[in-house]
Design brief:
The protein is of the alpha/beta class. The chain has 3 domains: 10-140, 3-Layer(aba) Sandwich (Rossmann fold); 146-305, Succinyl-CoA synthetase domains (Rossmann fold, 3-Layer(aba) Sandwich), CATH 3.40.50; 314-479, 3-Layer(aba) Sandwich (Rossmann fold). The chain has helices spanning 10-16, 36-46, 91-100, 119-135, 176-188, 207-216, 233-246, 258-268, 275-285, 293-305, 321-333, 343-352, 376-385, 411-423, 440-452, 461-479, and strands spanning 24-27, 53-56, 68-69, 81-84, 105-108, 138-140, 146-148, 169-173, 193-198, 222-227, 249-253, 288-290, 314-318, 364-365, 391-395, 430-433, 457-458.
């Protein structure tokens, strides 16, 4: 299915219905401890799905807190969305029941299909595909987690974040594990998801269709995708191009190495393709290709939280001269320049700190001035006004405060709050690095201060620099009129 430019048409609306079911049934429930269907039931209950949630227990068990039935057709009234968590051998009968019940959409958690490489699994997928096409019922999966749409109470785990306010990012992931990972990691850094689809073997609903849907979804500001392969390569490239023309698209490709291709085939039965072919498609689409989930979340946060920037000139602020030298080397490695500050900026900074061991050149080595938090406001206001720089990297090594805490208790907390107050409202893009140290619990608490204030925060300088450069190159392409 390809959506045309006039969008919000019947094709879009039909696919949108999947995310707005009036009722949900989960097939495969039982009172057995660890029952997978129970996980889906509980997830929808905890996230407050606004409609009936039915438990279908072929064993005849009564499932506490849910209306329970032995079969789907025993449920009185309509069922719009069904989640299937029964062994693969039972799929023919279950799918037939769904068709008879006139179910709109199905998400199949069950595995054991084409990813096994066995003829029986491939035949089962063929049967599901044919039933879906004949009936018009849409099928997500098999071998997938299905839908996470927190604002509508749809979820595949009860511990996923609830829908608090509008989401901004939608994510299609061929892998359930990569879906969990991105949701939890994004939530840690303040990223709100609009919709997430774990789509598995794409026997029916496939990545090109989902890309077209999210391209036209008005609430989706950025599209994230984890792709191992596709059954419709001819449709995927144009869909990526259409998406990239309207919104940022961040792509993590699984299975680029020979071993990874084999792993992808055994995971979702995905058809691969050479690394060069995939990368050419991503370039043509103007997609931002990342290497892992950390980079995916990082570049998304930079795109959403920081003003657009295309320049390379970076100011680096640190507490150590040696660290600053290393950070400068890494900045140049990742495509940035660390130019000397203007004489005017230098003179202004010297008024605020000119102590032994400090340097007001770029990189800025604040040394002991890091402990003099009343100067922060003046320092960052001066840097924000500097005409010869494009962005700022602030590296806060909190382990340097540890010794001072012995005779100045609370200095770490006071300094970080002072940094936060000083950088709020800055016009120049600024990213924060809080390197991992032995006091990790304290570092994570401080990380949340900057996250809640809307700044992208990183655990390492290299990760920050790579992500910032990916965002810079994206903005540069767009400002030049390219994808």
């Amino acid at each position: 299915m390809v959506f045309n430019s006039g969008m919000m048409d019947s094709a879009y609306q039909k696919l949108d219905q999947i995310f707005h079911p009036r009722s949900i049934a989960v097939i495969g429930a039982s009172n057995r401890t660890g029952n997978t269907a129970g996980m889906f039931l509980e997830a929808h209950r905890v996230l407050n799905f606004n409609g009936p949630i039915y438990a279908v227990a072929p064993t005849g068990d009564e499932i506490p807190d849910f209306p329970s039935f032995r079969s789907l057709n025993d449920i009185p009234g309509p069922v719009d969305h069904v989640i299937i968590a029964v062994p693969a051998m039972y799929l023919p009968g279950v799918i037939s029941d769904c068709v008879q019940k006139r179910v709109r959409s199905v998400a199949i958690f069950t595995s054991g299909f084409s990813e096994t490489g066995e003829p029986e699994g491939m035949e089962l997928e063929k049967m599901i595909r044919e039933k879906a096409r004949e009936s018009g019922m849409r099928v997500i999966g098999p071998n997938c987690m299905g839908i996470y749409y927190p604002q509508n109470g749809m979820s595949f785990r009860a511990d996923l974040p609830p829908g608090e306010g509008p989401g901004e990012v939608s994510y299609l992931s061929q892998s359930g594990g990569m879906a969990f990972g991105a949701i939890f990691l994004g939530n840690r850094f303040g990223l709100k998801y609009h919709k997430v689809v774990s789509y598995g073997n794409e026997v029916d609903l496939c990545s090109p269709e989902l890309l077209d849907y999210f391209t036209e979804d008005p609430e989706t500001k950025i599209i994230l995708t984890y792709i191992e392969g596709t059954r419709d390569g001819r449709a995927l490239a144009p869909a990526l191009i259409r998406a990239g023309a309207k919104k940022p698209v961040v792509v993590l490709k699984g299975g680029l190495s020979e071993t990874g291709v084999r792993a992808a085939a055994s995971h979702t039965g995905a058809m691969g393709g050479s690394q060069a072919t995939w990368e050419a498609v991503f370039r043509q689409a103007g997609a931002i290709q990342v290497d892992n989930l950390d980079e995916m979340i990082g570049v998304t946060l930079v795109l959403r939280r920081l003003p657009k920037f295309t320049g390379r000139k970076m100011i680096i602020i640190s507490i150590s001269g040696g660290l600053s030298v290393n950070f400068t080397d890494r900045a140049e490695f990742w495509g940035f320049e660390v130019p000397e500050l203007s004489a005017e900026t230098n003179q202004k900074l010297k008024r605020f700190f000119d102590l032994p061991g400090t340097s007001v050149k770029n990189p800025i080595d604040m040394a002991a001035a890091f402990m003099i938090f009343p100067i922060y406001q003046d320092v960052f206001r001066t840097l924000d006004e500097d005409a010869g720089s494009d962005l700022i990297l602030l590296v806060i090594n909190i382990e340097f405060y540890a010794y001072v805490e012995n005779f100045a208790p609370g200095i770490t907390d006071n300094s970080l709050h002072a940094f936060l107050e000083a950088i709020k409202g800055m016009k120049k893009p600024l990213a924060v690095v809080l390197p991992s140290v032995i006091t990790e619990e304290k570092r994570l608490a401080f990380e949340q201060l900057f996250v809640q204030a809307g700044f992208p925060v990183f655990e390492s300088v290299d990760r920050a620099l790579k992500v910032l450069n990916l965002a810079r190159r994206y903005h540069q392409r767009k400002s030049a009129g390219g994808r």
